[in-house]
Give the backbone structure.
Amino acid sequence: MTIADRLVQTRERIARAAIECGRRPQDVELVAVSKTKSAEAVREAYEAGQRAFGENYAQELVAKATALDGVSDIRWHFIGHLQSNKAKAVARIAHVIHTVDSVSLARELGKRVAAEGRTGRMPVLIEVNVSGESHKSGVDPRTLREVLDAVRGQATLWARGLMTVPPAEDLVEARRAFEALAALRDAHGGVVELPDLSIGMSSDLEVAIACGATIVRVGTAIFGGRA
Ligand SMILES: *Cc1c(COP(=O)(O)O)cnc(C)c1O
């Protein structure tokens, strides 16, 4: 199957899942996660109509954005752990950042986006470690308020929602994590304040959509497995 075929399949999965829970398919954005895949693979997906791509590593994002420089309407979503010393490069290229997870990163990004002089605010999501696993990135739910306030304190950032990565490829665990994230959103201003939930990957996007996903991040189902 080609990338184009897999994209069609993925969009069908999204549409079916949305309709099944009484939502509109167009209210779920598909981010094609292209980490470790070539710029050529991204171009193939682009030619099949895909516009939003997700990358995890700053250097790889820079390399791919450079390779695809002439393609002006690609939207890059940064979905990996972001270190402050990489904030400049990511602020320059990304259209959405899913992984703000500290007060200091919020401040650094605010400053870097301001220095880029872009028009409009940069949409960012706060990554939350809802399952409390110690090795995972993301803010502890108890410090979410503090990080949200830090983002809102930056004139160049827009806190658009919350993101999480579930503990394992287990649908029961995934649902528990997604429901916990949705509950946190409700406790911090609800859908009006935080319209986006970035949840759902290749193995659990249907569960995520049932739990209110507005963005799903899908890699394997589109580009095939990673080495
Ligand atoms: C790699 C990755 C994805 C995509 O995962 P698949 O299982 O390949 O769909 C989504 N989100 C994040 C944060 C990732 O690192």
About this structure: The chain is about 45% helix and 15% strand. Residues 33, 35, 56, 79, 165, 201-203, 217-221 surround pyridoxal-5'-phosphate (CB under 6 Å). Residues 3-223 form a domain with the TIM Barrel fold (CATH 3.20.20.10). Strands lie at 29-33, 52-55, 75-78, 96-100, 122-127, 157-163, 196-198, 215-218.
